[in-house]
Amino acid sequence: MGLDINSVLIVDGVGANCGEILKSHGIKFVNKAKISKDELLQEIPQYDALVVRSASQVTKEVLKAGKKLKVVGRAGAGVDNIDVTAAGQMGIGVINAPGANAMSACELTCGLTLNLARHVVPAASALRAGRWERAQYTGTEVNGKTLAILGLGRVGREVAIRMHAFGMKIIGFDPFVTSEQCAQFHATKMELDDIWPLADYITLHTPLIDSTRNFINANSLGRCKKGVKIINVGGAALDVFEQEPPTDPLTLEIIEHPAEAQVRVGQEIAEQLVNLVKPGTFNTPLAEVTRVLPNIFSLCIR
Ligand SMILES: O=C(O)[C@H](O)COP(=O)(O)O
């Protein structure tokens, strides 16, 4: 017998397929693309489960207000907008869809790395504005340059494989990955202190937790090569992008994932929820953050 989940509140513009999958398995849902903090507090007591993206803050207050709440599903990877510790203490499970948008994040990272090398966005903007500034936007090759990947999980290692194929030297940092594992995706494992002065490009693929917040800061930047280029796709820790929603077009481009990935995260979360109610319905494994994250929280990597 599975969990008793009869009603699910879906917010933050999760793909419509999420609700459709739930409905086809007899689970009722209400989809509110945009919801304010007050509305969420008012609505949550009626629901057994909540599905969010990154916009809604699932604080202790929200979790407490969710009198019937059994599960919070994150349609995506990052759970920094959910108080996972409080959820665990209250017996509310937190599940996410960690792999569903990984390839999209990886491809966007690779594309942005090449774009940065060739100044595609500023050059195109100048041209559209009627300015012919060819000399100013002369690019460089990535071949032979060093790419530092901070966080070698699902996204980071795929980036390593692809950018190695472009001739980049890949160095990486991840306390959970061994040197032998790194070698499988052409990366050399290093300590952060050794990474900063070597990197021509730095890309962040860490979860946003206390130890990675403001990972790139005045101190680390001060130790980098002059002109180092930084790529931040998704919910990683870069203090200059902490303002959300961002308004700057480049930042918007950086955080926007293709629709494909949104369909996949919606599906993965819905299938996990259905499995919780009717075990074994889908092959999708349960990605329960409430079980694994406390160990990560205790790790200080700065
Ligand atoms: O954690 C993630 O999966 C990414 O940051 C994307 O999240 P969002 O699309 O919900 O903002």
From TrEMBL:
Q: Which UniProt keywords apply?
A: Acetylation, NAD, Oxidoreductase, Phosphoprotein
* Gene Ontology terms, MF aspect: NAD binding; phosphoglycerate dehydrogenase activity
Which segments does the entry list as coiled coil? none
Keyword Oxidoreductase present in the record's keywords: the answer is yes
Domain D-isomer specific 2-hydroxyacid dehydrogenase catalytic stretches: 8-281
InterPro entries, A to Z:
D-isomer_2_OHA_DH_cat_dom (IPR006139), D-isomer_DH_CS1 (IPR029752), D-isomer_DH_NAD-bd (IPR006140), NAD(P)-bd_dom_sf (IPR036291)
Q: Which residues form the D-isomer specific 2-hydroxyacid dehydrogenase NAD-binding domain?
A: 111-234
Q: Which Pfam families is this protein grouped with?
A: 2-Hacid_dh, 2-Hacid_dh_C
- Similarity section: Belongs to the D-isomer specific 2-hydroxyacid dehydrogenase family.
Q: State how it assembles.
A: Homotetramer.
What name does UniProt use for this protein?
Answer: S-adenosyl-L-homocysteine hydrolase NAD binding domain-containing protein
